[in-house]
Write a structure and sequence with these properties.
heterodimer, A: 263 residues, mainly alpha, 68% helix, globular, B: 216 residues, alpha/beta, Rossmann fold, 2 domains, six-stranded mixed β-sheet, 9 strands, 33% helix
């Protein structure tokens, strides 16, 4: 039998190969039906149109100086992005459990692969929504693209950090999964997706402004148009919360992953 | 040689920690094909997974200079919705195979899956999956192959191919094998390790080991 050349790889190259292989696996198994990736655009788009229509009934074509469609698009893309990355990363860890038999594959590699996959899908969705807006003649405003991207980036990191944390926790305590699913459900309503923080009386802000996703969504809208305003939200709070949760997620992962794969 | 130093491994359970190994030090020889024998639940598979670094010890260390395969069990790491070829590429990528298409062809040839190689694994019969898993492993050069019951599932023809491949490989590589099928073990192995009550015993002569195992 002829032999197979196995490359001597550095740690970095092993990581790269493993994440690439896992990513290919996600791509191959992620879109199984005939609609394929187009569903990743159609689904949120229909959702945005429906909710923008509802919101339009309340206050017409503009919501706090931003076009109602843009207002809704930012909210829904951000919250769906958050939920999909969170669920995607947590599911990836349990789904790939049999792969940890290969010593090169560690839970965090499946988290990174799922993160890249979900992010690419979301960017594709963002692009699709942009194209839709262009053809419908909806003005695309972008006063501070960097701020918008920074908000998007921190929502992604936020979701992945929580994904890291929950995936390890759920290997130890399976009931946590139910709690996570329950806890993420109201996020849609408390993250300023449909109602801006400005729609809510100031004395109730303290019940909502602990939520970093709300800050990200409101700031992203502010990034799209300065006239939208940024009262009550803070970029510093968003970034510090993200950083803290990232640190927490990595710390929990680092402490417990070796024992978690034995479960 | 694969050396275990003060290895402790337990699984937490409702009844407290279930110890599989407590402070075990042992050297597993890798200059010969070794069978691991023991009753159900004695820790054969755990030992296997520890050697392969699929799992980690609670205390102590396992070290070796050699390249060790993953534990080739019935269908570990094979995605049912992906085709045989895609699964092969996945395994090849992870293990750093330089030429993936050549590797694919060799796996195809060895597993004799034919056209089924390009169909999802979920459509395979129960004998075909382990054939794929074994073919993927044997076509990568390792110093030590960890084989868990795999060869006992295939048909006679596949078993003789597996045997032939392992004999050919055994010039540079060795096998550590778990099986309850003594004829299987006699076919491939020269020595035995018996696991009993968390302790490991080495028998250089396979027949002596089997006799001891059967008298347990």
């Amino acid at each position: 039998m002829s032999s197979t050349t196995v490359l001597k790889r550095s740690n970095w190259e092993i990581w790269k190969d493993v994440i690439f292989a896992l990513l290919m696996r996600e791509v191959r198994t992620g879109f199984n039906d005939k609609l394929g990736i187009s569903w990743a655009v159609i689904n949120p788009l229909l959702f945005i149109i429906a909710l923008a229509f509802l919101r339009g009934l309340i206050n017409g074509e503009e919501t706090h100086t931003l076009s109602t469609f843009t207002f809704m698009a930012v909210g829904i893309l951000f919250i769906q992005g958050f939920l999909q990355i969170l669920n995607g990363t947590v599911q990836a860890v349990s789904k790939n459990k049999s792969l940890y038999s290969f010593r090169q594959v560690q839970p965090i590699s499946s988290i990174i692969a799922a993160l890249i996959f979900e992010t690419l899908v979301k960017l594709f969705t963002l692009l699709g929504v942009g194209v839709f807006m262009y053809y419908m003649g909806i003005e695309i405003q972008m006063d501070n693209a960097l701020l918008f991207l920074l908000c998007l980036f921190s929502v992604i990191v936020l979701a992945a950090s929580l994904g890291l944390f929950f995936s390890i926790l759920e290997m130890y305590i399976s009931e946590v999964k139910k709690v996570r699913q329950l806890a993420t459900r109201p996020l849609f309503f408390i993250s300023a997706v449909f109602f801006s923080l400005q729609d809510i009386p100031k004395e109730y802000w303290k019940f909502l402004d602990w939520n970093p996703i709300l800050h990200a969504i409101e700031l992203a809208r502010y990034g799209a148009s300065f006239s939208y305003g940024n009262e009550g939200v803070s970029l510093q709070f968003l970034l510090l919360t993200t950083l803290t949760l990232l640190f927490g997620g990595l710390a929990v992962y680092n402490a417990f992953w070796k024992m978690a794969v034995s479960r | 040689m694969i050396s275990l130093r003060n290895v402790t491994k337990y699984y937490p359970s409702r009844l407290g920690n279930q110890y599989i190994f407590k402070n075990v030090s042992f050297d597993i020889p890798t200059d010969r094909n070794v069978a691991i024998l023991g009753a159900n639940g004695s820790g054969k598979s755990t030992l296997f997974r520890l050697i392969a670094a699929s799992e980690y010890t609670n205390e102590g260390e396992i070290s070796t200079e050699l390249s060790v395969s993953w534990p080739v069990a019935l269908a570990a790491g094979v995605h049912p919705k992906m085709t045989g070829r895609e699964n092969t590429r996945f395994i090849g990528r992870i293990n750093g195979v330089a030429n993936l298409s050549a590797y694919e062809e060799r796996v195809l040839e060895f597993s004799e899956l034919g056209a089924k190689f390009d169909l999802p694994v979920q459509s395979y019969s129960s004998g075909m999956r382990p054939r794929l898993a074994f073919a993927c492993s044997i076509n990568i050069d390792f110093d030590v192959y960890l084989i868990d019951e795999v060869t006992s599932v295939g048909d006679t023809k596949f078993r003789s191919r597996a045997k032939q491949a392992l004999v050919e490989k055994s010039k540079e590589a060795k096998v550590i094998m778990v099986s309850h099928d003594m004829s299987e073990i006699r076919l491939f192995c020269e020595s035995a390790i018996i696991i009993e009550k968390g302790k490991l015993y080495y028998y250089e002569d396979l027949d002596e080991g089997i006799k001891k195992y059967q008298s347990l």
